Amino acid sequence: MTTFIPKRSLLGLFSTADGAADAVEGLQDQDFDDKDFEIMSGTPYPEGAFGEKTTNHRLYVFPFIGAALGFAVAILLTTATQVSYPLVTGGKPILSIPPMAIITYEGTMLGAIIFTVLGIIFESRLPRPKLGLYDERITAGYVGILVTTTEDRFKTAKEILTKAGAEDIKEGEPD
Amino acid sequence: MQERVHLTDKQINDDLLIGVETHPRWWFIAVGFLAIMVATAGGAFGYMINQGLGVTGLNRPVMWGFFITNFVFWVGISHAGVMISSILRLSQAEWRRPVTRAAEVLTIVALMTAMLFPLMHTGRPWRIMYWVFPYDFARGIWPNIRSPLVWDPSAIFTYLISASLFVFVALIPDLAVLRDRSTGPRKQIYGVLSLGWRGTPRQWRLQAIAGILLSALILPVFVSVHSIVSWDFGMTMAVSSWHSTIMAPYFVIGAVHSGVSAVVTVMILLRWAFKWEKYIRPEHLDGLGKLLVVVGTTWFYFFILEFLFGLYSQEAAEVSLRNLLIYQWPWNFMFFIFLATAFFIPIPMWLFRGVRRSVILMLLTSILVNIGMWLERFLIIVPGLTRKADFTFVWGTYRPSIIEIILVAASFAFVTLMILLFSKVFPLIPLFDQKEGKVLEATTRIGRRDVPSIVREE
After folding, report:
1. Are the beta carbons of A46 and B440 separated by less than 8 Å?
2. Which of A1, B30, B175, B206 has its CA 20 to 30 A from that of B120?
3. What is the C-alpha separation between A20 and A28, in angstroms, rounded?
């Protein structure tokens, strides 16, 4: 049986990327796990700018699945409509490959694109019904570091954020 | 050379959300005026439906006129967005940042407008479901997929859905900004639309990959769409001037020429309307001008090939069609205007840096290109039909009716109206892209000179 350990969250707001990077470094030095904190910004900083670890994703799988499905649906559609109303034109075969190729191409691309978008949303961990502990200043240029930790480490986390130059620290319950 | 302006994130938000958060009087006047034009077109359309297609200038043998010309024109304009957005993203062109969103929105609106015209042209738009979609399960009669007229909707729907999703994905971070700056029901709506975006490094990483991956996927669709539109003509054996293998690349590059010019027009109008001088700068117009020189010249090369191929074939119909375009009034007048406005005036002008960086000259020349490109479509479609062909039994000509003129004029009003309405709800310049550009800005000292530069990962 696992024991439920209550956790609390705190959000430090930094006006500079350097301050936020210092805070991340401080948290890592104090053995906070990557899952214990999250960085939030309104600007796309280069990957690893805050010293965070690179996360893996499987986005590249999605377009292939979508393309395969789109291809299958388009083949089904073009074949079924021609076979269902078999009108011979100019002695040519009922199943006319060149026009089928055009519609199949469009279907394949459409499937790939729709699934890529679904993949982007899924891999971005969206949609997220509740924002949780958040501050609207993040989209106005601040960088937020959200730490979710146990009560005994809460004070340490707060000290790290303060020492790194957090301009404001908000406390709250985790999602 | 770049004329950089240093801005904070808050300033960028304030400046670029001005269209959403403020309510200037000019916007309401413009929307009201455009809405009246669109409503007038609605009346004209209703009259046409009530009276039948006889109220248009269409008659044997010219059964494709202003509506189809306008359809091809707007499909061409729609090529701007994805062309600019995708190619510039993939090539990491820095000057793309203020251009992409407006170009993509222009794509969507132009496609929506384009799709209206074949519907009008049918005369019975309520029956389109039977003609295009595999819908009629009861009678077992299906759309004939061997017809290019069925390929068109499949390509255009694919392009429209793809472009809309492309815009939506790139809007998510900006929707989060709107969510954070709004109150009341607007906050709720933007909250739902932004999907709970918080801007974590993972989300930004996927956003960056999304831009590149979707660009790479949409580019082939973009090429296919105007190729397929061109096959409406190229695969028609009965009209000899249309039946040519060069149509697909000729149409695609022509579409890019008119589309990129339309983007220049829209960017300059946005710059004036929303006072975005700090964002849409002469360096951006310069970049677009250079791109247009390449695209316009390539298009002209294809035009010359298409024109000469017809002469080399020595077929009577082809030769006499060129005779018509060069020597016979009013076709020769339109042909002259088309060549002057689409190529001979703008392209030599864009060779000069001063012109490319002049807002007013770029506005005028970009409008000229689209006058020319509209005429080009008209001159491709109508003159070939005026001749008696193998399966027609009369000669004829075409004169558009007032109904057609109203509907075509209103299409321009409709596109402008939709862009203005979009600007009231969403930002037309991507906020996060501007902020990213600011983060990556640097100044490199080389010798005794400070050179503005951009930091980019290899």
Report:
1. yes
2. B30
3. 12
CA of A1 vs chain B CAs: smallest distance (Å): 33
Q: Is residue A73 part of a domain?
A: yes
Interface contact flag, A57 B436, Cβ < 8 Å: no
User: Across the A/B interface, how many CB contacts are shorter than 8 Å?
Assistant: 184
* Residue range of the domain that includes A102: 61-123
User: Does pLDDT of B153 surpass 70?
Assistant: yes
Q: A78–B145: do the CB atoms touch at under 8 Å?
A: yes
CB nearest A113 (choices: B151, B165, B209): B165
Dihedral sign for Cα atoms in the order A158, A161, A166, A169 = negative
Give how many domains chain A has, as a whole number: 2
At A39, give phi and psi (nearest 5°).
-105, 140
Domain ranges of chain B: 9-454
> 10 Å Cβ neighbour count for B5?
11
Residues A65 and A107 placed together within one structural domain of the fold: yes
Q: Can you tell me the distance from the alpha carbon of B421 to that of B168, in angstroms, rounded to the nearest whole number?
A: 16
ipTM of this complex prediction, to 2 decimal places: 0.93
Could you please state the CATH topology (level 3) that the domain comprising B9-454 is classified under: Formate dehydrogenase/DMSO reductase fold (1.20.1630)
Residues from chain A contacting residue B146 (CB–CB below 8 Å):
89, 96, 99
Residues of B in contact with A45 (CB under 8 A): 201, 204, 439
The one-letter code for the residue type at A126 is L
In the structure, what pLDDT confidence band is assigned to residue B455 with cuts at 50, 70 and 90?
A: confident
Please, which residues have CB within 8 angstroms of residue A33's CB and are 6 or more apart in sequence?
A: none
Q: Is residue A96 situated within a structural domain?
A: yes
- Are both A106 and A160 inside the same structural domain? no
- DSSP secondary structure string, B366-433? HHHHHHHHHHHHHHHHHHHHHS--TT----------HHHHHHHHHHHHHHHHHHHHHHHHS-SS-HHH
Nearest to B202 among A55, A80, A138 (CB): A55
**Residue A166 is part of a domain; what is its CATH number?**
3.30.70.120
Q: Is A66 domain-assigned?
A: yes
Partner A contacted by B316 (CB < 8 A) = no
Tell whether B76 is within 8 A of chain A (Cβ).
no
Counts for chain B of helices (H) and strands (E), in that order: 19, 2
With CB atoms and an 8 Å threshold, state whether B196 touches A80: no
User: Which tens digits make up the pLDDT trace of B297-340?
Assistant: 999 999 999 888 888 888 888 888 888 899 998 999 999 999 99
What residues of A are in contact with residue B222 (Cβ under 8 Å)?
Answer: none
Task: List, for residues A80-126, the tens digit of each pLDDT value.
Answer: 888 888 888 788 888 989 889 999 999 999 999 999 999 999 999 99
Six-digit token string for B41 = 């077109």
| Nearest residue in chain A measured CA to CA from B182 | A136
